[in-house]
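Thanks for the sequence, V.! I ran Actin cytoskeleton organization protein right away. Repeating your input here for the record:
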Amino acid sequence: MSTAIERQIKPIYDALDTNSPKSAIVSCNKLLKKYPKSELIKALKALALLRLGKIEDCLVVCDDVLVQKPTDDAVLTALSLVLRGLGRNQELMAMFEEAYKGQPQNEELGQQTFFSNTRAQHWKNAQMTANKLFKQFQNPKYLYWSITSTLMQARDSTTPPEMKTMLYKLAARLISTAPSPSTDSADKFHLHLTILREVDLDEACKHLETPTAQLIYNNNLAVDELRRDIWAKKGMLKEEGDLARTRISENHDRNWLEFKSLLDAAFAPLAGDAEPSEEARSQCTENVEDIREFLENIKREDGRRDRSASLALVDLAHRERKHGLSKNADRLLDLLQDYVKQMGGKATCFEDITRFLDFEGADLERWTAFLQERANVVVSQETPTELMKYINVQKLLRYNLSAITVDSEVDAANALLAQYLAALKLADDLKEGELHPADDLAILAASAFVSAWSLQEGEEKEGNGGLVYLYRAAMVLEYALTRSKHAYSMRLMVIQIHRLLAAPTPALEHYRALRVKQIQNDTLSHMVLSRASAFSLSGSGDLTFLSECIEANQIYVSNTQDTADYTGRAFLLEKYSQIPGFVDFEDQLECSLHREILKVEHTRMRYCHEIISEDVVDLELIELKAGFDRYQHDNRDFDIIPNYQPKGQPSYYKQTRLFSIDQERNWLRTMMDMYVNALTHASNLDDTVEEKLLIGDRQRPNANTTDRPSLRNWPSEPLAELTPAEAALKDFSDALSEWMKPYHDHARPPPAVVLAEAAKQAALKGGQPLKGIDLAPATNGSAKKDPAEAPAVKDAPESLNVFFDDIKVRLAETFPGRKRAEALHIAGLAQEALLFIVIESLRWKNPTNVKTHKFGALVQHLKAIRAHAIAALKAMAADLQKFAQEEDVSQRKLIQEACAPLPLDHDFMLDVAKKVTDSRKKVIEGVAKGMIKLCSNYNNLL
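Predicted structure:
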């Protein structure tokens, strides 16, 4: 490239670097008048168009450059960014492979070809490219690239089972003959062991015996973890225990894994035997006594500095008791009491020992008496350490409660709240980011109030009276958050309560205060986005929850664009131990259950906001169908919410779930089935057409999920995961779909006609012609179906009208009990039913379709059903507006009266009550307005 052109192109790079794609496009257009054949300028224009969101224009320019088979580094770099952004990894791979063929001595181009294959997870091609690089440039790292690619190919679910063993053996042979030994680095050794674990455990153990190997695994956690796994599979529990003993005593290693290995080794004689022999039991008893003496020495040495040995002694006694080897029936209880005395001032004390608290009868009475005595000893709470001792005792006492009533839980909550308020003086001047040491007392008080609410029966839990304890729980948590604003666990707890109270605005405010980032969008956003369509005001123009869905979705966009780059960097830096983790991480996010749930929730909200047209149907259909044939990973974190409820009760999370049901795979499959069926009827796409028109690559199957069912094949128990109203919507959708299917199937044009029309449109826009498509069928009359063969129009099922009559009654039944969240849920489902009618009617908006196939009677039936649905929705909207008017000052006063016994500031409680009632009024009114707007939008659809 000449210096003059380089100077002229620089402003384009500057504009792209400063995220000014419009300026970049203007500069590109000017330069293309001077240099109309410049591949680089066109490639940069395609990149600018992509960043501006003009996908169709971007495709036209990108395809124009690709057909020239570019080889220039700058052009390839720009195009690679474009193709990655479009999700066209197959074409990215083909582009680099073509360029590499033209310049086989270009090492950097060879590397880029390799990375493009790893991005597309074409491990076979990657392995062949790495082999070629090794033969050409004799760099040992390329051989390790080849070996790693062979390993990843063996792990791939698309690889036939008979090929996997052969690939592992090939990788083992290659690494054993590599010019640089695997012991050169920890990552190479990790790779070698990973392969040997699949091929030959004996050989893997031999490799671990060398002094160099011992040095590596003693200084590298990844290799040490792999060594543990290999020894466990080989049954080398004794050797593992001996090594752990050495590390604990000589290296002063206090990693809990070492103590666990020590304990596992002690009970190794009993492993795998349902009825162990007396000899095995005797040997195990000797081991236990030896380990106990060793741990007691470590405990004396560590004192209170480290709790590992003390906790290991508790674990040892618990296992001993479980296997019936204990000669001292009181040993476990004595050790637990000692642990509470010694480590009760640590925040982890409760979590450390709850798994050992399975006492009954006299043991439980003795344990409870000890805790009560202990509570009296540390009641002063004059220092944070004393306060933590008191908190841990209260948690342990609460955990073992058996006979609980509403009154006992309310009394406990009031007592805990009083202790919390008294303890606030210990930290009046918290620094930024610090948590108040008394936070857990507030959490315990709120948990007790929630428990009292959950113990109420039936209707007593609903209505203003039944929500008293839920209001108090929310008030306690809201107050505690003013004193400790970074207490994320309390925010998650109060989010759950606000959703139950049908107050989505404060729930969303607390969620945003968490400032979740990156992967937390996948693990935590379900807290506010699960069934968010029930609280969405998108129908009335408020896009808050719709925007939140888009924001949460960014982690999946980032994963698609960036995670594969981490794999490439790991290869470049020879971090082979990280590569399977990056690939699995990409798969976990790509096939996230929450991602698919977000898609459905986003669709449900968006369809209430946008006018549904034929233009969006095809894209929506492709998007929803993509996840059907994949296993979905559930990455949602449900355990992050603290649970201090008695062990016989459901957890705090389960007690405060909206509608008492989570959105799981059967719920997802049911909802996707309904939408996919309806969209399929409205669309002209089939698999053949979709393959031709798809912009990005088709989604690959999961990695390592051959033994797990896809969403399509998931064992079906849909009704167990649906609310009654959702089950009614499913029946409605099924009846509508079954009735409409024959008419859509008959009227849908053949694939050749659809493709020919698409090719025509592409040609009109100046794009490249679609491959293998003949324009002739577009004008070929023989492709049209014979109207005489059209199915006879049948009357609409009566159940379609009955659904709207029934759902009006369902909504009316929620008003006396003040079931606000349920009312919003039912109203949202009624809207969805109307939307299904709209989608099923889209094809018949075109009078030509109706006339050609003689479906005039069908349209009349659809008009009648739509009119009945709109009348029902308008009546429901009027009822909701009346319901919303009740959220006035009197309702705020009821909340204040419910919380009056709490010793909290009156003005503060008034503010919280106002937040709740204002939010409820806004959402109920907004949903009602949205329903009226929806009816107006589709009143004259046909």
